[in-house]
Amino acid sequence: MSGLPQLDSLPRLDALDAAGWRACLREWLHSLPEGWRLPIAEYVMFGEAPPRQLRAALGNNFAQVVVMAENEDLPKLRNLACLLANACPAEAWGSPEAVDRWIAGGGVVGHAAADAGFTLASVGAGVADERRAA
User: Fold this and answer.
1) Are 21 and 123 in contact (CB under 8 A)?
2) Cα dist. 123→14, 30, 67, 83, 105 in Å?
3) Is 24 within 8 Å of 13 (Cβ atoms)?
4) Helix, strand, coil percentages, rounded to 5, for the chain
Protein backbone atom coordinates (compact mmCIF):
# COMPACT_ATOMS: atom_id res chain seq x y z
CA MET A 1 0.00 0.00 0.00
CA SER A 2 2.97 2.30 -0.43
CA GLY A 3 2.23 5.61 -2.09
CA LEU A 4 -1.31 5.84 -0.73
CA PRO A 5 -2.23 8.66 1.63
CA GLN A 6 -2.55 7.83 5.29
CA LEU A 7 -6.31 8.07 5.39
CA ASP A 8 -6.54 7.88 9.15
CA SER A 9 -4.66 11.19 9.37
CA LEU A 10 -7.01 13.11 7.06
CA PRO A 11 -9.57 15.34 8.77
CA ARG A 12 -13.26 14.53 8.72
CA LEU A 13 -14.78 16.45 5.84
CA ASP A 14 -17.57 17.93 7.96
CA ALA A 15 -14.88 19.91 9.84
CA LEU A 16 -13.65 21.71 6.68
CA ASP A 17 -14.82 24.68 4.65
CA ALA A 18 -15.92 24.06 1.03
CA ALA A 19 -12.43 24.53 -0.50
CA GLY A 20 -10.84 22.25 2.10
CA TRP A 21 -13.61 19.72 1.56
CA ARG A 22 -12.96 19.56 -2.18
CA ALA A 23 -9.18 19.25 -1.72
CA CYS A 24 -9.52 16.52 0.88
CA LEU A 25 -12.12 14.65 -1.17
CA ARG A 26 -9.78 14.72 -4.16
CA GLU A 27 -7.07 13.07 -2.04
CA TRP A 28 -9.51 10.42 -0.80
CA LEU A 29 -10.66 9.68 -4.34
CA HIS A 30 -7.11 9.28 -5.62
CA SER A 31 -6.55 6.57 -2.99
CA LEU A 32 -9.13 4.40 -4.81
CA PRO A 33 -8.64 2.27 -7.90
CA GLU A 34 -8.87 4.48 -10.98
CA GLY A 35 -12.04 2.80 -12.26
CA TRP A 36 -13.89 3.62 -9.03
CA ARG A 37 -13.08 7.35 -8.85
CA LEU A 38 -15.50 8.87 -11.35
CA PRO A 39 -18.42 6.55 -10.52
CA ILE A 40 -18.20 7.25 -6.76
CA ALA A 41 -17.86 11.00 -7.34
CA GLU A 42 -20.83 11.05 -9.74
CA TYR A 43 -22.89 8.98 -7.32
CA VAL A 44 -22.20 11.27 -4.36
CA MET A 45 -22.56 14.54 -6.24
CA PHE A 46 -25.32 13.75 -8.75
CA GLY A 47 -26.98 10.54 -7.57
CA GLU A 48 -25.91 8.62 -10.66
CA ALA A 49 -26.34 4.87 -10.19
CA PRO A 50 -22.92 3.31 -9.49
CA PRO A 51 -21.62 0.05 -10.97
CA ARG A 52 -22.63 -3.14 -9.16
CA GLN A 53 -19.44 -3.45 -7.10
CA LEU A 54 -19.62 0.12 -5.78
CA ARG A 55 -23.34 -0.22 -5.18
CA ALA A 56 -22.59 -3.25 -3.00
CA ALA A 57 -20.03 -1.24 -1.02
CA LEU A 58 -22.42 1.69 -0.63
CA GLY A 59 -25.09 -0.75 0.53
CA ASN A 60 -22.66 -2.06 3.16
CA ASN A 61 -22.18 -5.48 1.53
CA PHE A 62 -18.40 -5.70 1.63
CA ALA A 63 -18.42 -9.49 1.24
CA GLN A 64 -19.84 -9.02 -2.26
CA VAL A 65 -17.31 -6.24 -2.95
CA VAL A 66 -14.38 -8.47 -2.01
CA VAL A 67 -15.64 -11.31 -4.19
CA MET A 68 -15.96 -8.97 -7.21
CA ALA A 69 -12.68 -7.07 -6.66
CA GLU A 70 -9.61 -7.49 -8.82
CA ASN A 71 -6.63 -8.82 -6.83
CA GLU A 72 -4.72 -5.54 -7.19
CA ASP A 73 -7.72 -3.62 -5.80
CA LEU A 74 -8.12 -5.69 -2.62
CA PRO A 75 -5.68 -3.61 -0.53
CA LYS A 76 -7.59 -0.46 -1.53
CA LEU A 77 -10.90 -1.67 -0.11
CA ARG A 78 -9.93 -0.22 3.26
CA ASN A 79 -9.58 3.16 1.55
CA LEU A 80 -13.08 2.79 0.15
CA ALA A 81 -14.45 2.01 3.61
CA CYS A 82 -12.60 5.05 5.02
CA LEU A 83 -13.97 7.24 2.23
CA LEU A 84 -17.52 6.14 2.97
CA ALA A 85 -17.19 6.56 6.73
CA ASN A 86 -15.42 9.91 6.64
CA ALA A 87 -16.25 11.66 3.38
CA CYS A 88 -19.67 10.55 2.15
CA PRO A 89 -22.85 12.07 3.49
CA ALA A 90 -24.39 9.62 5.96
CA GLU A 91 -27.61 9.60 3.93
CA ALA A 92 -25.74 8.30 0.86
CA TRP A 93 -24.71 4.86 2.08
CA GLY A 94 -25.14 2.13 4.68
CA SER A 95 -27.98 0.07 3.20
CA PRO A 96 -29.44 -0.73 -0.22
CA GLU A 97 -32.44 1.44 0.69
CA ALA A 98 -30.20 4.41 1.50
CA VAL A 99 -28.50 4.01 -1.88
CA ASP A 100 -31.88 3.94 -3.66
CA ARG A 101 -33.00 7.10 -1.81
CA TRP A 102 -29.73 8.90 -2.63
CA ILE A 103 -30.08 8.07 -6.33
CA ALA A 104 -33.73 9.15 -6.34
CA GLY A 105 -32.80 12.39 -4.57
CA GLY A 106 -30.14 13.37 -7.10
CA GLY A 107 -27.06 13.25 -4.85
CA VAL A 108 -25.60 16.32 -3.14
CA VAL A 109 -26.78 18.61 -5.93
CA GLY A 110 -30.35 17.28 -5.81
CA HIS A 111 -30.51 17.36 -2.03
CA ALA A 112 -29.14 20.92 -1.97
CA ALA A 113 -31.80 22.05 -4.46
CA ALA A 114 -34.57 20.37 -2.47
CA ASP A 115 -33.38 21.44 0.99
CA ALA A 116 -31.67 24.78 1.52
CA GLY A 117 -30.40 23.48 4.88
CA PHE A 118 -28.46 20.58 3.32
CA THR A 119 -24.95 20.94 4.71
CA LEU A 120 -22.97 20.32 1.50
CA ALA A 121 -24.94 22.77 -0.68
CA SER A 122 -21.98 25.15 -1.02
CA VAL A 123 -19.74 22.30 -2.19
CA GLY A 124 -21.96 20.87 -4.93
CA ALA A 125 -21.74 23.79 -7.33
CA GLY A 126 -17.92 23.92 -7.31
CA VAL A 127 -17.51 20.21 -7.90
CA ALA A 128 -20.17 20.29 -10.64
CA ASP A 129 -18.24 23.09 -12.38
CA GLU A 130 -14.98 21.10 -12.12
CA ARG A 131 -16.70 18.04 -13.60
CA ARG A 132 -18.02 20.02 -16.58
CA ALA A 133 -14.56 21.52 -17.23
CA ALA A 134 -12.86 18.09 -17.23
Assistant:
1) yes
2) 11, 18, 34, 17, 17
3) yes
4) 70, 0, 30
Q: Which among 59, 84, 65, 66 is positioned nearest to 7, based on CA atoms?
A: 84
68: nearest Cα among 58, 80, 79, 54: 54
Q: Which of 62, 106, 107 is nearest to 80 (CA)?
A: 62
Average confidence score pLDDT of the chain: 74
pLDDT tens, position by position, 64-81: 888 888 888 888 888 888
Q: Mind listing the pLDDT tens digit for each residue in 80-130?
A: 888 888 778 888 999 999 999 999 999 888 877 776 555 543 333 333 344
Give domain limits for the chain. Answer: 17-133
